[in-house]
Structures
1.
Amino acid sequence: MTQLNEAVIEDKLIFEASDFTRKSSSLAPDIDVDTVAKSLPEHLLRKSDLQLPQVGELQVVRHYTSLSQKNFSIDTHFYPLGSCTMKYNPRACNTLAQLPGFAGRHPMAHSSMSQGIMSCLYDLQNMLMEATGMKQVSLTPMAGAQGEFAGVAMIRAYHDHNKDDARTEIIVPDAAHGTNPATAVMCGYKVKELSTNDQGDVDIEALKAMIGPQTAGIMLTNPSTLGVFERKIKQIADMIHEVGGLLYYDGANLNAILGKVKPGDMGFDVIHMNLHKTFSTPHGGGGPGAGPVGVSGRLQPFLPVPMVALKDGQYYWLTEDELSLSIGHLSAWMGNAGILLRAYIYALLLGREGMQRVAEFATLNANYLLQRFADAGFEIAFPERRASHEFILTLRKEAKQYGTNAMDFAKRLLDYGFHAPTTYFPLLVPECFLMEPTETEAKTDLDGFVKAMELILEEAKESPEVLKQAPYTLPVRRLDDVKAARELDLNYYQSHAE
Amino acid sequence: MSDIPQELKYTKSHEWVRVEEDGTLTVGITEHAQGLLGDMVFVELPEVGESYEAGQDCAVVESVKAASDIYCPVEGEVVEVNEELEDAPEQINVNAYHEGWIFRINPSNPDDVDNLMNADDYTALVEAEEH
């Protein structure tokens, strides 16, 4: 096995497979390049050689096919990465979103020639409004982070419009995703960190002490990143609204409540949804995404444009011409149309009833897994709370007794054919494993995962070194992440090969 | 149990504070905190001459696991920063209480330091967090 590994590690970059004696006559232009080059202005002429790999078509195909075979994805492995909702995305969503009529549409095509796709987007706006209980939805943000930015930008626009410029603070719980405080700062706000109590709820007394006329709003994820539902959400909403602030809902964990509870009913004024997580787009590689925003009545005038509207049986683009207070455009066109279409098809396939089953099975799977881990002797971070769609193990006992920390368990899981759960997030829980099985895993796969963890626990007791050196079976072994972070080196230079 | 020197003062957010002879305060993060964060890869230092309130975030330490704010323990003005950390952030891991110091402040009110935790209180805090 070791030998095999070494062979794989020595996989060449496509540049290193290059052979400069290789020629392609069929691709060469049928002109005298030197003569043509003389007719071009001097400053436009390339001074150095073009750095392109000299490889044949079959080599290119093999190179990229080989890379793709190294993918660790939901199509090949169980992927319980907490807070990421790595669920199976039905093939139908992908196939239908790529119908030639959708894929071939030019983004500048007139709306009279785009009624089909506009009707899909219009229906999607409505479905998302109904699923979240918000007054209106704009589909244009092209990622979760952009949706967050749009959301807080609307909060800012609302206060600015009311000439309420004393509101300079956004409250963010200490368990929040790092994007929340980053978004607040991007929108010019000061971040106030709110503590969490030992049951995973936000500390109401601490909240009381920090709200006032300076409060622009609060950003919450519910269920939170701790995998538990914020039980005092109505009280929090009332407290924030009473002092004139607004509530932002981070849709990262929407999968847990789909069709069951609506953020609008909880009192939220603005919400973003990660359609690429919850609504059927394979993700995890940095995009593409879609982060639509939904708002309550008071933020409606500030929504980003364009949106699709319907008048006299015709769909048309709602722009800043009609919405003068809009925070504006977030992308060149209407957002990531392909992702939006997948979401539309997914929602149609599920139907209203199916959407509820998403939340039910996601929660059932999480609670089943939690119970199995508790029975296997692992420590649950919040044993008294029912899990939402995800839950946290703390491996602090194993770290202390056997010297095997969460990272060692995570790396060893890879050898057993499982993607590791989220590690060391949220930071509040020491040596944590944040696990989200999602609704699409079968019981047998969950059982297999528990079995692997039991075996690794045995290994930790008997021979902890095995964990410390893992993984053994992947294309690359344990990386030196300290060196990688301190001496970042991502570029390939020709001279390396020579 | 990690090393918690008796002569230092501590904060709930795991900074240590040493009162220097000239009345300035040297600040760093505790042995316990660096152990939790793991290998340091980057430190963002405060600006010399900037003033901070007690509890205000004024520096950032970034490890392989997470980026973490460092809070100013008492109100004061930054008079010196440990520039060596820019090239050698691992000094915080190697010796959190000496080479790993982060910045020095001139406190607005010298008595403020009395409000910080002593070594015994901090030991109790760390023990409580571990259980």
2.
Amino acid sequence: MKGKYYIQGSAAISPQESFFGSFTPQMPVVEGPLNRLRAKEPDYSGFITPNNLRRMSRVLKMGLVAALKCLQNSDIAIPDAIVTGTGRGSLQDTERFLHNIRDYAETALNPTPFIQSTYNSVNGLIALQQKCTRYNNTFVHRGFSFEHALLDGMMQLAEGRADVALVGAFDEMTDEHFYIKSRLGMWKTALTQPADLFTSGTTGTLSGEGAAFFTIGTTPGIARLDGIRMVYKPSRQELHAALESFLAQHRVAVTDIDLLISGQNGDTRYDQFYQQLTRQFFPQTAVQYFKPLCGEYETAGAFALWMAVQTLQAQGLQHVLVYNHFFGEQHTFFLLSAV
Amino acid sequence: MAEQVFITGMGMVTAIGNNVQENLQSLRLQRSGLGYTRHIDTIHKAVLPVAEVTATTQELAAMAGKENVPGYSRTTLLGLVAMQEALRSAGINDAREMPAAFINASTVGGMCDTEKVYFDILDPEKDGAFLQFIDTLDCADCTQRIADDVGIREYVTTISTACSSSANALMYGARLIQQGLVQRAVCGGTEALTRFTINGFNSLKNIDKQPCRPFDQQRNGLNLGEGAAYLVLESASLVRQRQSKVLATLSGWCNTNEAFHPTAPSPEGDGAYEAMKEALAMSGRTADDVQYVNVHGTATLNNDLSEGKALERLFGDKVPRFSSTKPFTGHTLAAAGAIEAIFSVLAIRGQLIFPNLHFSEKMEELNIVPETQLITGVPVRNVISNSFGFGGNNASLVISQYEG
């Protein structure tokens, strides 16, 4: 895929103070008893009419408003494409509909939770609100949800079908789903502060959530998006080979990387991927860890990319590499450079 | 010019057959797959017709070579059966032979199995084998199990845009090929009937208690179905190199959004019109070159009106023959786009046009009527296949005869 891609603007709703103003990472404190970070939701009333606000469930509001804020920040009204990724869509609605089916014995059901549980409902809402009648797509695939949305957006630009694509991701956590995933051993069982994630020496991690959106285009913006490389269930050797060929493809040496943004999450089952990669390629490079800031979720990679853009700009860096994986299966590299 | 994308293999399972040949046979014999569910525990089971795949989940497991292997949802097994046939039909003995993409589509993942044990999962007192289905609710579960089973690894992902999901998966795979990211992409979708979905569409008052009647004045909603379908897409250079047998060309595609309403299309079919028009333009064909349109034709009041208007706008008084095959397969949601793409290939290869069952009365708002009889021995060189969904998502594909 040839061509240059630039990030024109971005916005994020996350467990950090990320929606307004400049971003200063702050180590959150988990009050317990669950190892869970919640997104700090902004006041949505400036973005959504009161009528719609009442009807919409939580992640719909989070996704829609992050998208609208991103367009605002980018000074763009109507993008040529809208592509999103989500691991869970509107969990709240899926759960509500499952409960309603049981509680009302399949009779007289309210269709709203069913409609809103559809994974592309946020995409539809963005298109509806901005009257965007062009390309619209949604990926739902764990740690390859946002990542494919971004690749799709880049391909829209490469094909000349879009000048500007809106690309983003959103995920929420609910009490019920937190419990379900705890049965799979996803979360640490003892209360663990984000600051202590990497020293806990236990399996599982900290649950997170959030929404982040970007506008990408072919004219210079706030950062250059050199590329994305996904690797599915790799061995360590395959992962390292993928990184080497990815950097070579973009003519960047490991020593050119000013900052590595790492998805390490303190789960002793999978942290070795991060540790080995850092040891092998980036022993001297500055590393920032984003999972203690936003928690772990399918589309945490979108928060990482957002943080990479903020940091690259604020610190005047040349090259930032993001490496993230979701429970050892979907691994991704993003490479960002100064414009 | 971007590289051409060819269809070199296909596999499917639906209520009218466990493979492509059986599906074709049922289409020819006008044998509908609609009936009543035997596998879903729902109060609607004797009331709402569905097009259910005949095989039990256990029988599907045997067909897929996964007998007594735990953790495979019905969604995954349907997909695996279709995937295995698709690879065989493309002459691929080992998909590991080259980097390839698997672009799957799903609306509710393994909900068919999860919903049966959901409240047990929530109950800390309960423990047991059902816990293996916890993660199948996730759309990625079926995709990864299928990918892992056949060994596709380069790009693995799932698209979920409701009823247009697998049409979008086909587009995405074709675009990965055109961008040179892979030479081969297997694309399509899998969908199992669920109590969740039946109740969802029923709560929208979108389900007909009779067999659905697309494009009929008396139509009163859709019938749900289940199935899976995958098409093997290959680049022109790969086709040359391995001398693949080409079944048809995926010559054009377009995805648009209605930006009109969360679940209803615009009355004039703006999105459908744009999607068909742009897909046709991309294919380098004109309206006169189209011999058949496999319409989305769900038989809901809104869809058929807006899709019919869009056809009249695009083709004027020369609307090509068209039919909805949903009275055969039911509306298979995420699988529908790929199932109907295969039907489009079959129409081209067999030079035939499938009937739109259950039609009797022209819609008063339209001047056009669907084909009601099987038509054979007619030239079918270019087919438009439409898939439209919630969220205003419209996808049109143009499938063309291979001129090689």
3.
Amino acid sequence: MVTISVRKKDFLKLVGKHVSDKELEETLPLIKCAVEGITEEEMALEITGDRPDLLSSEGVARALKGFLGMEKGAPKLRLKKSGMKIMVERSVEPVRPFVVSAVVKGIEITGGYIKGLMQLQEKLHLTHGRKRRKVAIGIHNLDVLTGDFVYKAVLPEEIEFVPLGKHTKMNLKEILEKHEKGREYAFTLEGKQLYPIILDGKGEVVSFPPIINNSLTVVTEETRNFFLDLTGENFDAVNVALNILCHDFQDRGASIESVEVIYPNNRIIETPVVKETAMRVGFEEANKMLGIHLKALEMVELLKKQRIDAVAEGGWVNTKIPCYRGDFLHPVDLIEEIAIGYGFNNFEPLAPRIFTKGSASTLTVLVNKARDLAIGAGFLETHTYVITNENTLRKAKTSEKPVIISNPVSLDLNCLRPRITPILLEALSKNTHNDYPQRVFEAGEVVVLKEGTETETQTQFNLAAVSAHAEANFSEIVSALDAIMKGLRRKYELKKTKKERFIEGRCAEIIEGGRVGGEVGEVHPLVLKEFGLTMPCASFEFKLKEVE
Amino acid sequence: MNERESRVLSALKTHFEKADAAAERIGMSYSALMSVVSGLERDKFVEVRKESRKFASLTPEGREYLERGLPEKRLFEAVGNEMGLREAIEKAGLVGTEKTIALQWIIKKGWAKIEKRDGKSYLKLLVSKSRVAEEKTIELIGGEREELKKLNQEELNELTSRGLVRVSEERAFHLRICGKGEKALREEKTDSGISQLTPEMLKSGKWAAKKFREYSLETAVVPLKIGKKQFYLEFLSEIKEKLVGIGFREAHGPLVETEFWNMDVLFMAQDHPAREVHDIFKVREPENGRILDKTLKERVYASHKHGGKTGSTGWGYEWNAEIAVRLVLRSQTTAVSARELAKDPNPPQRVFAVGKCFRPDQIDWAHFVEFNQCEGIVVDEGMTFRELLGYLRSFAIDIAGAEDAKFRPSYFPFTEPSVELLAKIPGRGWIEVGGAGMFRPEMLEALGVEVPVLAWGLGIDRLAMIKLGVKDIRHLLTQDIEMLRSKSY
């Protein structure tokens, strides 16, 4: 999900008719633009991740005009030839192999427009462009450039120019090290020997994709003609983005001109490539999936509403998908368009009709039994987070190694608990002002390491309990454990053990079927001190069952 | 008068004394004393004065601010006169949610405003001294508790509404013996009825000749600290029961997953933004797991590269098994559904899972890095989109307690069509409850499923907050024993 901000007046001008706020709020969410906020001046729209063509006012207006029946079918790009060329050198192949381009003439820039354009560029970079790795967009003032262009890869210190936002010349290596954008996007060129560069006919640097443009080509409110360069790792992806931009410019009254890109071996591609994608869907298949009974011709109309050209032929609906849509992989994607055209809230929900036997898992049944018994033994149930930190585990002198997160949001939340007791002690440490006795338990998930398995770990449910009060002791906690074990009909033995976290001579391992299943004991005063507890505590914890 | 009554009566003083102190002096438990007193009061032998006192104590958050100062105060002091917003926050040492709290209050209190210049935000102070009254109140309450009447009501209200202070009521009883009681004591012979039925009375049958004393209903209730179920788990149990009731079988899955199950099997391309570090927790130790099902691995490879045999174009890239074996914390319970389908791809099936998921979200009142999802799938011949909407509607109404439901298109890499469910909750209006859809053919083919599968994932924490009247998602998993004792579902 991406949120964009849209100037409402400008947007309604693009739509070409007045639409009330209420109607906007009701209609836009039905075409994948959820309205997050709406004021006199602006709208905040949340766009779903599959629709980069909706990241601008122009794109949303185009979709809305279709949905409201004002325009039908796929909009066409009226292309002229600019006569400009980009020569692509073989050196870019291992670096950033693809470039596409177009020329935009006669755009009327009005207040606030540039902001919308920058927003589109930024959001396309972020989502469709995968942070510029897959697609990067350069928008330049055409009038300061001379054709023809060269796209090649050079040594980092071979070329220098004044990057946008700076006043002095820097070479490419310096830009990556010192320029804000250079540092931000340096990862896209990590490990590359050569860096990509676009030069114009005079040998002037146009841009250093995907990092920064030359300050010379900066676009202002006075700019009327643009030169676009889009580079990336995947031809289809850069071409979709270019088509999105060209359609948006055309919707603002600009004329669009193509650029010839000459790839190695003299393979010439005129960009933007505007060949629509053909895809077909069986109309019975669509009806069957949606659970409705539309005629093929009705489906054609619904697709046209979604700005897709369609005709009915035999049992098929044949479509041509406009080049600014890159989200069609399979005919089910067309079926969704039919459903959106139909209107999600026009479907009559159908009551469930199959019969299957419902059941709680054996794990849940067991966990619930254990919870009931612990409550019967007088313990108060807690439910705490599985995510915790190494410090809490250390304070409880936990010997098991936890699963450690490599990108924690904070140091307080950097691992998963291998046992619950440390978290219960932590909880008690926050309740020293509340009345005692405090007897708490949790039947919850923990994650322990288990080498050689599919996930190298084992998720399991443990039952842990702590009793804290002036007379808490081993005898009390063992009695509770025994009652619960008997209630669960589990045979166990206690075996004396020595553990740092318990008082010596007052702790034991719980042995089930010859294996250690848990432990019970009086919490060591040094552990209590770590948690700031001044009440004696006795605890037990054992494995209930593994998640299979 | 029985033995216990005369014991109490003779011990009580002629001036008022607190009941708990009296109990200790007499050597009786408080509840035993009060049950005896209840009868004595009815006979006007004892006078009971009820006193209700209100106390304020700090919540865990409040206690934290006691130590570290209110976040807005810390921010105020860090700023000086004017400072870049980000620098000020850093200087004040604010972390996590404190940032938003500090900003919200510093502005609300009119201490400072935010100014934007050259695309950068600055914090500019508007007053020279910040009012410290609330801080004083917090200090006054301190680590223990303070009687309400000693505190400024206005500040207290503000602190309570911020969730920093909790008010509790304590009812105390004061007792003294009355003239009639003294008289009765003197006339020990006077027998005024049975206070406590004893085994001896039952054996001898002497009870039949006597009257039982009545209890006063006000003094009979003594608070008990019982063991009880956690309120949020009760909510989750109810959801599980409802799903079992309509024919769903429960499933579970591991919390640490391979990227394979969490994403690749779900047809999420390996360069999908949701796979990046800001959307998923990666595991450092241990780093990699393994893929056990070789056939599935081959099929997933094919579906990503060219769509397999489904007629899909696939994502058109070279799928990399080394990325797929990396370990992550489960970010969606759909991983559990995928595992269930791999175990048994045959219809008909209806499966659900209520499970923990993890995402590195910004933490605030509505988001935490660990949360619960409720996932379900319906696997059968002839399942349709309309039927999916039928399930969603019934969840909204039967499970979320909504009065109406509506739908809008959405996007998930593994479903098409994809839909979002909105539920109209009484008193709350429309809220987003979850996402759903029909699993994509690329995913189903890899898993060997030959019939349509309806799937949905509900964000049940939001629902729980509404149903339980909890304003902060973290309170669902509270460690506050007072809240655990007092709150019920």
4.
Amino acid sequence: MAPDPLVRVTGLRKTFGTRRVLDGVALDVRAGEAVALLGPNGAGKTTLLKILATLVRPTRGAAAIGGQDCARRPEDVRRLIGLVAHGAHVYEDLTALENLRFWAALWGLRLPASDLAAALADVELERHAGERVRTFSEGMRRRLSLARFVFARPRVLLLDEPFAGLDQRARKWLEEYLQAFKAGGGAIVMATHSFGRELAIADRLAILVAGRIALDTPRAALTSDDVQRLYALHTENGS
Amino acid sequence: MTRVLGWLAVVALLAGLAVGFGVAPREVTQGNVQRIMYVHVPSVLVAYLAFAVVFVASVAYLARRAEAADRIAHASAEVGVLFTGITIATGSIWGKPTWGTWWTWDARLTSVAILFVMYLGYLLLRGMVEDRERGARYAAVLGIVAALNVPLVHFSVVWWRTLHQPPSLLKPGTPTIASAILAALLVNVLAHALLYAYFLAKRVRILRREQEASA
Amino acid sequence: MTYARRAWAVVWKDLLVERRSKETLNALFFFSLLLLFVFQFTLGPDRERLAAVLPGLLWLGFILSGLLGLGRTFLVERENDCWEGLLLAPGDKSAIYVGKLAGNLLLMLVVEAVLVAMFVVFFNVDVGGVWPGLALVIVLGTIGFAAVGTLFAAMTAQVRARELLFPVLLLPVQVPILLATVKATEAVLLGEPLAAVADWLKLLVAADLIYVVVGVLTFEFVLEG
């Protein structure tokens, strides 16, 4: 029997004011699996990620990570997740090392300097440890953001457009990083609206249109052209 | 149910008027002006009641996240602000012939005025936060801070300045007002409390309809 | 222990950012100086008239610079969505409040000390013999002011009309602190013993306790975003 999915979403609905952003979303993600959420802007991808990240409470339905309900037991969920969203959660006026030291302390961890240095080395930022984030490229910020998870050890990564604004080298690095994360038994939910190479790390594609999952399918058999065709088919019908 | 409450409030208010003007005697020193007390005192008591309800509902909301508690807090704050406004207006009308001025920085008028702006701010906050869930949370926090602030405001303002007649109703010991006046006051307190309950029930229902329509 | 270390991390981070950006402190010093000009111009050169309203002016200065300074508390958390990071770090969220409050307290006390020094220089106020009492009143008043200010700053940081809403919410709630501190400052400057204002000091202590406890208990609901 397969183990329970790490991420389980059922009948999820979220309204902001009179606008229904999510309307009955269901999604399971197992350990070692990555799901790419595709969809046009405003389809609800970010909202779904935020509900999984305990940042937004659903209006109806439930989202759970590791068996813990995101709305009812947010603290337990927070120990299991790592979120990389549009903001990298780093302070511009602090150096890379200072940022890491702050987040480690706030997580209640008491880490020796060597551990912090190792975390930076893990994301290939060791040469920039003493530089302020203000001078960092987009890719470096994202890597610094991920460096926090070296010591926080999440089981689920929630990524919102993780490849946006990255150069070729940074993309390649991130792909390898995410593959390694999956191989280590982690689950990934990744929102994106491009069909580039990043889809290669996804095991499944879920197309979100107007707050509903229009299609949830394994990716392996699909070529890039297939994905584009499916996407066009569903987004045009749905919206 | 709400309708019954409404009619009860109407009947009680009419009875209050009748007793206040018909039965209660003309007060010796102040004359007819004193009769405004039958509105002034009940309004302020009901306003305090309303803000106490805001406090309890706010705590309940944060503990349970029940939208019903949030609606009660919201509605009660609105009705409380209304009655606070009535208190200030009637106090002012009473002050003109009695003290010769519409407004003095008398201790109790001042502390009611501070309550008024504090809870106006509460309603302003609710209006300015777009996301309903967030607005409810923020308002609950403010509702708790504001309610706990009420005694602090009271003591600080009383020590700061006091011109007002000492409280005439709630003082322990020998009753100092004529029993007919006291009776008129009590009838009016009951009438205002019923009116508060009616407004609250009505407003809660409207809020629920609004929220259902948008969910 | 972990709680204190987490609170300290927030203080350390905020002080470091402030030292690097120098955004808040420099502007507040300058603002205080300008306030002094404004007070002088609006009240005229009459020293006696000034002396009579001095305690009020002093606290007006504290409140105005406090409104500006406290209102900025959480702006740094909006850059790169650090706010979310604070919320997602597992553990008691009130440690963040305590850290922010401590940082604000430090910031405000520094600005207030400078403001008092400027009053001494420009308005010829004599605080020589009364400074311990004055310091006590200022510290007690500032704790209460910063406790509510920090909580409300978090509450308004994400709202559109932040600059407007923050003072509108904070000022009415601060009336007890304001009355108590102005009265106590008045007495202290007149050379009266602290015992003469014991009631006001007790009120300040009670207010400080209530505000800090409420802030600690409710902060997580505000941080939720």
